[in-house]
Amino acid sequence: MGSYSGDNDIIIIGAGICGLATALALHRKGIGSLVLERADSLRASGAAIGIHTNGWCALDQLGVGPTLREKANRIYVVRHVSLDNGMTREVLYGNEEYRNLVRSDLIQALFDGLPPGTVRFGCHIVQVKTDPVTSQSVLHFDDGSMATAKLFDFVSPIGNKLVHWFIFQTRLPEDYGISGKPEIIREAALELIKGFPPEMIELAENSLLDSFTFTKIRYRAPWDLLLGNLHRGTVTVAGDAMHVMGPFLGQGGAAGLEDAVVLGRCLAKAMQMDPNGDYAGKQLVTRVGLALDEYVKEGRMRVTRLSMQTYLNGLLMATSSGFTSGLIVFVLKTLFGGALEHTQYDSGRL
């Protein structure tokens, strides 16, 4: 399908984790939506994803937690090893629930929970405008067709024999164009890990060629989240479209699941008919706008804190200065408490 033409109460752009999770949250509240995806099929960026306790709380609210737990081993300890000095630091999870998932399994589980026809593939949106009369969002597709919506939302060790490993670096000019070329990605990865312990090099060398992927990660600064405008009228952002962050805390995907639960809960109240049966027009637009205010208010400080903590953890990994490391650790403990405090957040009932 090249485009979509028609009217829908809720349109979600992007069949990523947050987009599918938001559609599933709405579906479980009895509210239909339409997910428009540019690709021709489901796609999962990256091989795996770590889900902490807060993410599993959200997955349970979405009804897919039990199924996904069967596909993910629980991790009780994470060991950090410094290649500079050989020092080892362990993080014990104890009662915390931390599991690694194959990312495509998560995407598929969310998709399978949706009614048939909820996701439309091959939809290329080039512009979004607001109708000055109805205040509804108007989507323009690359073939000239249009669609309107009352609400519009942007989005974006695993088992016994699987290991998830990754390398991160600042993007260089020569990185452009290597996506989809696993041979080149493999060569670049092996070049980057020269000097690493032999067992790590062996792991990379023995990885299947088609398992090598290259993902461009952008970053949204914490102050942008704290001060930025995260919704306008009946248009809002969620998931990576709102709070794309570095991989140093392992909370990007789980934060998107939290968004879905909060957004579904807020919208369910707004989309209920009032005693007079009003379910359309500007009164509904006003209610939806207030619901999005509530959604942004509830989530802003949460994702700002996650983004700041991720940023500081990234600095900690990158520095070789003992003084700087000590200062960052002090700030982390002062602002965020224990290393696993961020996993204790509960997005609440759907």
What's the CATH H-level homologous superfamily? Answer: FAD/NAD(P)-binding domain
Q: Judging from the principal axes of the Cα atoms, what is the shape?
A: globular
CATH architecture: 3-Layer(bba) Sandwich
Q: What's the domain count?
A: 1
**What pattern of helices and strands is seen along the backbone?**
EHEEHHEEEHEEEEHHHEEHHHH
In CATH's first tier, which class applies? Alpha Beta
Note down, in words, how this protein is organized.
The chain is of the alpha/beta class. The protein has a single domain, classed as FAD/NAD(P)-binding domain (3-Layer(bba) Sandwich), CATH 3.50.50.60. 40% of the residues lie in helices and 17% in strands. Strands 1, 2, 7, 8, 9, 10, 11 and 12 form an eight-stranded mixed β-sheet that branches. It has a two-stranded antiparallel sheet with strand order 3-6. A hairpin with a 4-residue loop joins strand 9 and strand 10. The protein is globular and about 65 Å long. The protein starts with 5 loop residues before the first strand and ends in a 14-residue tail after the last helix. 33% of the residues are buried.
